[in-house]
Amino acid sequence: MRIGVITFPGSLDDRDAQRAVRLAGGEPVALWHGDHDLAGVDALVLPGGFSYGDYLRAGAIASLSPIMREVVAAANSGMPVLGICNGFQMLTEAHLLPGGLIRNEVGTFVCKDQKLRVENTSTAWTNGFEQGQEITIPLKNGEGGYIADEETLARLEGEGLVAFRYLGKNPNGSLRDIAGITNARGNVVGLMPHPEHATEPGFGPDTPTAMRSGVDGLTMFTSALQGVLAG
Amino acid sequence: MPTIVVEVMPKAELLDPQGKAVAGALARLGESRFTGVRIGKRFELVTDGPVDDALLSDVQKLAEDMLSNSVIEDVISVHVDGGDGSAVGSSSGDSSSGDAPAGELTGQAEASTQTGAR
Prior knowledge:
Chain A is α/β, with parallel strands linked by helices. In chain A, about 20% of the residues lie in helices and about 25% in strands. In chain A, strand 10 and strand 11 form a beta hairpin.
């Protein structure tokens, strides 16, 4: 089971995403933004970071990368595609997901362990969660405020396309507390928080039982692997 | 060389945290005359070819499709600056004098001004 992780100029969490794939039992495949080649992978991760220094708009220049032509085609054919943070921004810039992400309402970079509620468990990346499950994974971004027009928000809510919602105090001004969304088909998911940083005991968020033992993010990667196996 | 100027602003209804931060700094300076600040972008596209309607039309499209994101921003203006080859900011080439911002933007645009939104 091979999951490609695309490295863009300025990606930071590509290696972490590869590690998360490995911990979930998959084989990570490093892909390069400048290629037109997905190397026959079964699923794709667009990792976090600051591609092109967030120049123009976060994710905008990366969304025009050569490999994005193949990514868009693969997404439209049903391949599971996950965009994390900067990857989520790229997916909105590439019009694979609706809406956009703007500077945090608080005006500062936010870095914390964030509690989320899983709102949709029928996507390729969330099928291993319980409906309404509360999870904690790291959040770290400067431009994480999710926005969309009222019509789009109504459609997201009406069709159950909100995948994750922030619990507790809204960290970045995202409308409707939206932390992540999916497309209608459920194969493309984007979220601002970082599941790949909560996949290995000793390196995740604190839990009531032990420091840094949180591995709630791992389920996103095992979900994709299960889905690919089942499909 | 002809320069085509594209101006992009965050949508009016969206919070502009950058503008808000600057407004806060102005207030701390004791400036009470301004009720708000919004920060946008100005692109200067330089070409060594002729500027005609076809090029301006292409720039308008690029402005809407790539230079801005219509979900969060509006293209405010696409216009030619210094169409006769004069430098941008032709009122004075000396930007270090620090005096009043005379003639800023106004009086320089010679060719068409199109507003893409609003």
